[in-house]
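In the previous chapter we treated chains in isolation. Here, by contrast, the input contains two separate entities that must be folded as one system, with a combined length of 669 residues.
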Amino acid sequence: MKVHESDARRIFADRGLPVPPSRVATTPDESATAAGEFGGLVVVKALVLAGGRGKAGGVKLADGPEAAREAAEAILGIEIRGERVRRVLVAPAVDIDREIYLGVTIDRERQSAVVMASAAGGIDIEEVAADTPEAIQRIEFDVARGVEAWQARAVGFALGLGGRQVLDFVGILNGLVRAFVECDASLAEVNPLVVSPDGKLWAIDAKLNIDDNALGRRPELEQLRDDAAEEPAEALARAAGISYIKLDGDIGCMVNGAGLAMATMDVVKHYGGEPANFLDVGGGAGAERVSAALSIILDDPNVRAVFVNIFGGITRADDVAQGVLAARESMPRAVPLVVRLMGTNEAEGLRLLADAGIQAERSMDAAARLAVEAVR
Amino acid sequence: MSILLDASARVVVQGITGRQGTFHAQRMAEAGTAVVAGVTPGRAGAAVDGLPGVPVFNTMAEAVSDTGANAACIFVPPPFAADAILEDIAAGLELIVCITEGIPTIDMLRVMPVLRASSSRLIGPNCPGIAVPGANVKVGIMPWEIHAPGRVGVVSRSGTLTYEVVQHLTDSGLGQSAAVGIGGDPIIGTRFTDVLELYEQDDQTDGIVLLGEIGGGDEEQAARFISERVTKPVSAFIAGKTAPPERRMGHAGAIVSGSEGTAAGKETALREAGVCVGDTPREAVDLLAAQLR
């Protein structure tokens, strides 16, 4: 889950990072008022979860309240990667002498948490990592211990910071590592961390992504979720314990297991169809969840056929069959239903379906072809 | 013997008194696995439905000292599962299979340094486990009846996709030397390269099916390993060709970030390493079958 910059700034500031003050404005007037309070040059930024705000015209400098009003007028209401801008963040602009990248994330290749820092800040760190990996300073660390001060100092010196700045940098790095661990983050990033002409360090941007698996024990972070930035059906599915992502096709897919769910979409496409969604009912799904999944799929008006593809392991075929039958009873509209059912308690599941007049397929390929034919 | 598991495995089921733990402990025992004990803290002495004579202990240390167990299968809920892994490592188990999905990543990052310093082997988390049909033993949740003894090794990041391919292998008469689900999380105990190496050295395995998916770089790493170290034929299927970028596709590890982790990139890397890549799971099996005949 991504959190908004305004929340990430607060979380970072709470851990000692030098974050300039800021206000959230929902109208041009509020933006002007905030600029008046700060005085001087301000930056007005779209508060959206999507990346690439600058390129999309979502970040503007403004000198004084009138300019801040105009900047907010220009930004509010635009769409950035499908996300409507409803709020802007207003903060005093910081004079920039140089920019540094600082981030904490998970290195999957090395199976470790890692601090990454680069003297080339304000840029796409993935590009730097791909093109000039030697330009990135890295500290792999044990999350139970954090980063040692000498490691942080060494990175500070390698970035070309001076004596006093390095002490500040150590505090910033440790604060960011604490934010990462304490928030169960998958990414905690300051890009850029700027050095102002008077030699001070400022975190002028803040990015924080939370591990979805940890939200259950972080209710204070779950509250930061922006429902409006999410597809309503996806939020509904999540509440039911279902993993659902809406796509543009017309064949609804209901599958158990993420890998098989992706493969089902791929196979539908392979046989000339277009999947309407990714859906994993989750391990051990009972009849109730299966039924909820079917109604979420059918709420998408583009769906003209549903392909149920279940290979039971921890999920039981008889539970699935009961869910399919219950859902069919209350289906808001009739569409062709192709069912492929195998695995744990398969015989019982097939019998339940056969008794209700549904002939289930054994082969995923054959079932996918039937689903594709059904929408032709 | 095949890889990771043989008839000498003595398995403790952690979370055996829960619905899933009980159900799958029964299925493991039916397959022929020696399920010697269960552990559920606070439930020592409880009876396990359908498994008379399988004692339940409060701690793994007691289960090991009383039964001589050497393997664990974890069905503990996500907030407590990393702790269960740490308890197993401390108890000195050789093999730990963690089925649990949804463990916070930070918890797994805490486990990793302890695991690396130990001699335990962790499979998963968020995986279906290991099945070795020729030895009549499985530790995990896979449906047993789809398996058949044979000479193809399966290694996969996904549970149900493993079943899909195991079924095709059985239907096509090839069977399996073993099927190993390594798990769909970003931080896992055993990776493609580890299992590929075991299959390469296993004299019961003639060919390998690798089932990958979008996200991370493990398939690319596997491709490098295959070109350098694997002499046996390998075929593969990569799930998620139709997945949109920057979206987590169910598995915590299945996400394309920027240019990293795409299905196309993984397929290219594998093909360049001499792996036959199928457009569907069935095709991956057929491609391997053609090479083995």
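The two ends of chain B are 23 Å apart (CA to CA). Residues 224 and 273 of chain B are 7 Å apart (CA to CA). Compare these points with the single-chain example from earlier in the chapter.
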